[in-house]
Specification:
By secondary structure, the chain is an alpha+beta fold. The chain is 53% helix and 17% strand. The protein has 13 helices and twelve strands. It has a six-stranded mixed beta barrel. A two-stranded antiparallel sheet has the order 2-10. It is elongated and about 105 Å long. The two termini are 28 Å apart.
């Protein structure tokens, strides 16, 4: 029956090509929706893991960087570092800074004027204060990381956007001051030690990082030992859950969350929209694919009723003829499905680029992520569609009156 079904398809090349192209287009969209359904979750988990820390400690369960600050952050960081389940702790302090204008301070005039002329006064920079003794959360691109000991000129690392737009690189000097202050503190001149990639920067972010003392010097608050968040790396072999439980037991008033907890929360709340829309579009796409193949097979069978009746009269069983119709459907669907995977992959790359350009979306966060599960599900859904599309044409063949059909063919 496979040979007969194949000969039937190639005997009608135009209709077969139309069916295969239609399935390819439908299958490509279906494949993209399957990639979208879990793409954000997978990419978000990878983004969290790449930062190198698997537990986060905050003052409350408010979203990161939107709730109250952790007080006594330095003492708390040291206390957590002493826990046997914890390998390292990194404080995060965020400040909004800007390039100082020429003339603000004599020592910073040259560096400030150069950077300000390129970026403009309104372009702010997010400054992250960290402890250089702890493991960094960024990835080095060029230059060197923050030195562990303070030098005569404070050092900072910057992201690629800031390096390109302000034409800065390792060894460059730049003057920064706190943004939005009515009586701003004197600017601070920094030397760029390296260019890095921050894990949660969006495509337009201008980010720099220095020490905790630099953050306090820029915007004041040396007497306020506060931090937005503590990033914790669990000891190898124990796992994030064990470290989180130990931290919660030692400090029950803190909100402790693991990467897995964050992924589960975002999957259930923030990312649920994409999962729902992908499910709806996948269902609609699959339905149209079913209609396309079903209609083409039905038309093909109706045009070959005399041929099918003749085969039945020559002794071909009903089940073998019905099986031939099913094989035709499977051949059409899987020929189109084979084209759909690379076509859907190319389409997903374009769509991913468009979506990642939205404001506030981390540059390394992807909406469409390939996983074997999506491919297996794609094959399974197309298999169901091919069987369902062949159901009605198979029923026509099963109930076909052989004698009446042959008589009608002869008379016509």
């Amino acid at each position: 029956m496979l040979t007969l079904s194949w000969l039937t398809l190639i005997r009608q090349p135009g209709r077969s090509a139309l069916a295969i192209l239609g399935v390819a287009a439908v299958g490509a969209l279906l494949f993209d929706m399957l990639l979208l359904s879990r793409g954000l979750v997978l990419s978000f988990r990878d983004l969290l893991d790449r930062a190198g820390f698997d537990v986060r400690v905050l003052a409350t369960d408010a979203p990161p960087f939107s709730g109250p600050l952790l007080t006594g952050a330095t003492a708390l960081s040291r206390a957590l570092s002493r826990l046997p389940e914890v390998e390292s702790v990194l404080q995060l302090r965020l400040r909004d800074v800007e390039f100082a204008q020429a003339g603000t301070a004599a020592a910073a005039a040259t560096a400030a004027a150069d950077a300000s002329s390129r970026l403009g006064r309104a372009d702010a920079v997010q400054f992250i204060g960290v402890d250089p003794q702890a493991r960094s959360m960024w990835t080095m691109v060029s230059g060197q990381d923050l030195p562990r000991t303070a030098g005569p000129v404070p050092a900072l690392v910057i992201n690629r956007n800031l390096a390109q737009e302000a034409r800065l690189g390792p060894g460059s000097r730049v003057a920064l001051r706190c943004a939005g202050e009515a009586n701003p503190l004197p600017p601070v001149t920094f030397v760029v030690s390296g260019v890095v990639d921050f894990p949660f920067d969006d495509v337009r972010a201008r980010t720099a990082a220095g020490t905790l003392r630099d953050a306090a010097t820029l915007c004041g608050g040396e007497d306020r030992d506060e931090a937005e968040m503590l990033l914790v790396r669990s000891r190898p072999g124990l796992g994030a859950s064990t470290a989180a439980a130990a931290i919660h037991a030692a400090h029950p008033g803190l909100y402790v969350v693991t990467n897995e907890d964050l992924v589960e929360r975002f999957s259930r709340v923030e990312f649920s929209y994409f999962r729902q829309i992908s499910a709806v579009l996948a269902t609609v796409t699959l339905f149209f694919g079913f209609l396309l193949i079903g209609v083409l097979l039905t038309v093909s069978v109706n045009q070959r009723l005399g041929e099918i009746a003749a085969l039945r009269a020559l002794g071909l069983s009903r089940w073998r003829v019905m099986g031939g119709i099913l094989i035709e459907s499977v051949l059409l669907v899987f020929a189109g499905g084979a084209l759909a995977v690379p076509l859907g992959g190319l389409l997903s790359l374009r769509l991913d680029t468009i979506l990642r350009a939205m404001p506030g979306v981390p540059a390394d966060l992807h909406f469409f992520v390939f996983e074997p599960r999506a491919l297996f599900l794609h094959v399974a859904l197309l298999t169901v569609a091919s069987v369902a599309a062949a159901a009605y044409p198979m029923r026509i063949v099963a109930t076909l009156p052989i004698a009446a059909t042959l008589r009608r063919e002869v008379v016509s």
